[in-house]
């Protein structure tokens, strides 16, 4: 990774931390904080979400996102919306900005699509595994937890493919004990309900958040051939950010106000 790109990623992570922290510092809700942080990440071209999302096999963008609680629960009785129904719902919401699909285009993601398609023609890969899903978790002053996750999915994915990010319990989870957001190969996270598994280990297995997150990331997921990681926080403000890949973009502000950003192990 070029030094300029690394600096830009760290700067984008800091901006997202600032956006979320600003909400919490004025006594705002955890849900609003994670939304603010994720929106900041979606607007940066370095991540696979919003502007800069990867391409589908058809050369378009299909985006997935979830809040454990969110607008769909405030303005609709339904928990999950997809496809044309989601588009029509968005049309009825004045606060949701609409843009042309081409707004999400970036040259680097187009180059990734071409590489993935060439690999597929050679039989090396059916869909390029270019991650970069963004997410945020937060604990507010009232003790409420929230999680949000947003992604463009997998490069060269087939039309209609849905990953783990918008699926509650797979890539996103929040309850009164923990909040979890995941990134990685979505199919494995779906098969083991990874985010909920972490929560269940804390609630019913007596595990700490760190123990639960590491058990899933280093045990359950690899057993299914899955790679990726999670960010998580519990009701006491303890953080867990394990990943089983070479790196994971991440930033944090802990309960004592200490903050940081990282890409690789160091």
From TrEMBL:
InterPro entries given in the database record: Ntn_hydrolases_N, Peptidase_T2
Keyword Hydrolase attributed: yes
Residues at which substrate binds: 161-164, 183-186
Gene Ontology biological process: proteolysis
Gene3D superfamilies per UniProt: (Glycosyl)asparaginase
Catalytic residues (UniProt): 133 (nucleophile)
Site (Cleavage): 132-133
Highest taxon listed in the record's lineage: Bacteria
Keywords: Autocatalytic cleavage, Hydrolase, Protease
Signal peptide: none
GO molecular function, one term: hydrolase activity, acting on carbon-nitrogen (but not peptide) bonds, in linear amides
Protein's UniProt name: Isoaspartyl peptidase
Origin species: Pseudoxanthomonas winnipegensis
């Amino acid at each position: 990774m070029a030094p300029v790109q690394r600096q830009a990623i760290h700067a984008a992570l800091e901006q997202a931390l600032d956006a979320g922290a600003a909400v919490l510092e004025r006594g705002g809700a955890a849900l609003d904080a994670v939304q603010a942080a994720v929106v900041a990440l979606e607007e940066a071209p370095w991540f696979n979400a919003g502007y800069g999302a990867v391409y589908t096999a058809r050369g378009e963008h299909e985006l997935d996102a979830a809040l454990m609680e969110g607008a769909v629960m405030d303005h609709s009785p339904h928990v999950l919306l997809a496809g044309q129904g989601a588009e029509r719902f968005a049309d009825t919401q004045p606060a949701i900005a609409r843009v042309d699909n081409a707004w999400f285009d970036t040259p680097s993601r187009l180059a990734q699509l071409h590489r993935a398609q060439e690999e597929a023609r050679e039989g090396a890969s059916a869909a390029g595994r270019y991650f970069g899903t963004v997410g945020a978790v937060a604990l507010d002053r009232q003790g409420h937890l929230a999680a949000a996750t947003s992604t463009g999915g997998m490069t060269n994915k087939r039309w209609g493919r849905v990953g783990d990010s918008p699926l509650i319990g797979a890539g996103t989870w929040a309850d009164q004990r923990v909040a979890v957001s995941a990134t990685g190969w979505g199919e494995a996270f779906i098969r083991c309900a990874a985010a909920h598994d972490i929560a269940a280990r804390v609630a019913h297995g007596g595990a700490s958040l760190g123990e639960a997150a590491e058990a899933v990331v280093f045990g359950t997921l690899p057993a299914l051939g899955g790679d990726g990681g999670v960010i998580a926080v519990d009701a006491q403000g303890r953080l867990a950010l394990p990943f089983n890949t070479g790196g994971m973009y991440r930033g944090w502000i802990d309960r004592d106000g200490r903050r940081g950003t990282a890409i690789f192990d160091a």
